[in-house]
What we know:
Shape of chain A: globular
Distance between the termini of chain A: 53 Å
Helix content of chain A: 40-55%
Order of helices and strands of chain A: HHEHHEEHHEEHEEHHEEHEEH
Number of helices of chain A: 11
Oligomer: homodimer
Amino acid sequence: MKEGPDIAQIGALIGDPARANMLAALIGGRALTATELAGVGGITVQTASTHLAKLEAGGLLTQRKQGRHRYFTLADEAVARLIESMMGFAAGRGHLRHQPGPKEPALRKARICYDHLAGDYGVRMLDSLIASGSIEAVGEGLGLTEKGEGDLKCIGIDVGDLRSSRRPLCRSCLDWSERRAHLAGSLGKALLSSFLDKGWARRTAESRSILFSPEGDRQFLMLFPVDP
Amino acid sequence: MKEGPDIAQIGALIGDPARANMLAALIGGRALTATELAGVGGITVQTASTHLAKLEAGGLLTQRKQGRHRYFTLADEAVARLIESMMGFAAGRGHLRHQPGPKEPALRKARICYDHLAGDYGVRMLDSLIASGSIEAVGEGLGLTEKGEGDLKCIGIDVGDLRSSRRPLCRSCLDWSERRAHLAGSLGKALLSSFLDKGWARRTAESRSILFSPEGDRQFLMLFPVDP
DNA sequence: GCGATGCTTCGGTTACGATCGAACTATGAA
DNA sequence: TTCATAGTTCGATCGTAACCGAAGCATCGC
Lengths: 228, 228
């Protein structure tokens, strides 16, 4: 009975509501200070500090000191995937805190998931990439095709650069609001970054939602069509 | 801060050591009674009973009454995958309770993972199926090829039957002792079942390990060769 | 230097949940 | 029927961890 990895430890880390809220906030991808995290956790800074220390000791978070601020982020993408997969699992069982899916329509439409695009627009983009033959799907896996590599070059994404990182190029990530897959991995990140760089969309201050400009919206829908 | 699925709830369910031990025992795939689960959890039956009630209320377990026994199993494969993914995550962070990987060499060699083969033999089988062109791998996804369908027919597995179930045919499952993927899904289950039916291997009473007979061992290694 | 801000550490309180003994229910066997 | 086994429910204990106020560092701006 004592064999194997200790899942109770990380389960307990995630099992506290305040800590869970902090982790959920951090899959927004941006680094947050201890005070901000105390806010999302609904607790005082003292309490948050001890929670954050535990999460860091457990290897779920890393902190970066910058002046008199301490910025916390998820330790790596594996943590984000774990949290997301638990969210997907919980959503599938109806363990929702309020409505099914994100409350605000904006969140449901487009939001950030660690560092890539999720929500309605996220699944639409992946669907379109598959339909156009840029990405092939086998089982739950995703792979970039030669055609896809060319197409991406046209919109300014050099896949060669992405390959050099150890991180997988394409990854499927289950969207818990749409209950379908969207594109993660370094390619997912690069695509979202390019939208932000082009000014098609921007992140909001306090939320995970992504706001598309009217022009960006038009461009996005044209670039990633879905046939009826 | 209140949006989204409640991961704290299931985190807390898994976060208790006694409950985590029970869940880990149940990914062995066989139904266990409350008394047996109390044993693996290292607690009395009264305590186990309350734990099991909570796990059932949380949707992680289902129970089946049979005479004066109550047999508990994981609610479905999604629970098994969640536990396994948490094990993989924990193993990657070095959150081990004792040695890295399973303690007994037998467990490391071949063990059951919910309903399919894991351990050294599990990853070997998948490697061999990919090398022979029976299964194709794209990203993290797995798909059965036409050649594979024919090959499987030869060893007595009718893929058509498997397709009728809603469960995915091929699924990749991260092996936490080998740190590599092995084959899950209904095909993984069917393959293990056939080994057991043929008498090549048998399950052990109290452990997750799978014991191959000398003849079964020979057949298995011949059927799933790996080139150097 | 000074005060203000961000965060951690300390100390003490509180509450929840894990635990078990004992009593109770249900099924099976004699 | 009676006894034994399997399991749940009740009641009470106990420990731990979450929590916050207050004090202590560290860093910034002045």
